[in-house]
Amino acid sequence: MEKDFILEALKRQIEGADLSVKGEEIGRVVSVVDGIVYIEGLPNVMSSELVLIERSRGDNKKDATPALVLNLEEYAVGAVVLGDDTLIQEGDVVRRTEKVLSVPVGSQLLGRVVNSLGVPLDGKGSIKGENMQLSPIERSAPSVIDREPVSTPLNTGIKVIDATIPIGRGQRELIIGDRQIGKTALVVDIILNQLNEPKESRPICIYVAIGQKYSKVANIVKELEDRGALEHTIVVVAGAADPVPLWYIAPFAGCAMGEYFRDKGKDVVVIYDDLSKHAWAWRQISLLLRRPPGREAYPGDIFYLHSRLLERSAKLSKKMGGGSLTALPIVETQLGDISAYIPTNVISITDGQIYLETDLFFQGQRPAVNIGLSVSRVGSEAQTKAMKKVASRLKLELAQYQELAAFVQFSADLDEATRRKIERGAHLTELLRQDQYMVMPFEEQTCVLFAGISGLFDEIPIEKLRDFEVKFLDNLRDSHANILGEIRKTGDFSDKLQERVKQIVEEMVKSYDLKKAD
Questions:
Q1: For burial by CB atoms within 10 Å, which of 263, 268, 316, 403 has the most?
Q2: From the candidates 28, 202, 377, 500, which is the catalytic residue?
Q3: Domain 104-382 is classified in which CATH homologous superfamily?
Q4: Residue 57 has pLDDT above 70, yes or no
Q5: Which part of the chain has CATH 1.20.150.20?
Q6: Per residue in 254-274, pLDDT tens?
Q7: Could you confirm whether 377 is annotated as catalytic?
């Protein structure tokens, strides 16, 4: 059934192509195996062009199967079949369409779940609209002249990221780690946190699932829908059971959909989950196309594959509309090996990485971000003044804590200053723990991190710290909303505001201690 949808979508793309003009190029299938066809007789065919393979059925009727041209050789071209290849035979006629593979783009896609070709999968009917148009999946990245420096933060709602590994709109930040330690949970939280942003400046999110189980994607979609985040999100799915060519197409399709909004001056976040499976798909296609294997059997252009995708992320200049496309690619490691081929490739292409560590995950740290191996090469330039004031001190405190904790683990005798630093670091580490779906606006993060770094939480036992944090935030929202409003409006955390927050925390600590004594 799904293959029929794919065929219908591709046929709609090539409607209007004049296939009967005199002098048209007609080729023939030379060989077909494992979804790859070799065609002769198309000397002028383009790379990434769609061609139609007319296959003969038993009832003598003609039917056509689309294929995507990828290999341009001297006497033949190699194409990957976008559909069922079982009825294609040697000698079948192949006709050019003179159209490259494109996907539908437009605001009607918001809130929808589609496959790599823009075919809806959510049962909500077809996607129609006056401003719907087709965009090629492959486009040139914006030139340096058309870009400007990253200057606006992408608030993730996750304290450890916004404070220590900030992301700017237009940046490319890699999320890397072993399987099942919270990579997808992290990006789902980032999508949910955009609800905390003003509607007029709220980024549009595009989640691209490559090779994921449909059941997993369905759970993510349900969570986004239940929490009201699906209305500003597009979900592009190339499922685990889908043909490998759809895995290859999926991230480029998601990027093309995001570029439509970026070029209209809007901010977009595209999540590629994950590029390891994308690389596997391209390796499979390349080997079937008889391209020579290189390191770990990957083709020689595997770096170019991901670089031409991620280079399309940019913060455009005001002259070009001022929109941005932020890329959050995910890469899966094996036993934490970030020196493997694909991880090192993508690390060298991106502007930083968020490294999730298995040991931290099993110690109960959520999210399991290793601050020492994680870095953002751009985002600090886009941080608000308020966050900068607390973040610089936070990094120093955590670095000192980690160094001292490793140094004194074999020592029983500690001087008072060392003991205090270790206790402060332990409090801050506990403060950075955050359950899934519990995203926090940046103004609330600023107040919490300021109190933690200033030592205002030091008297609270670690096991009671998260409970106290909840009560503190409830107090701010209910009785001191003007403080949060001023931080949000100005983006600054003045000395006057710091003093007021300090007084609030000190009063709460006193009353909390009294309750504890009772």
A1: 268
A2: 377
A3: P-loop containing nucleotide triphosphate hydrolases (3.40.50.300)
A4: no
A5: 387-517
A6: 999 999 999 999 999 999 998
A7: yes
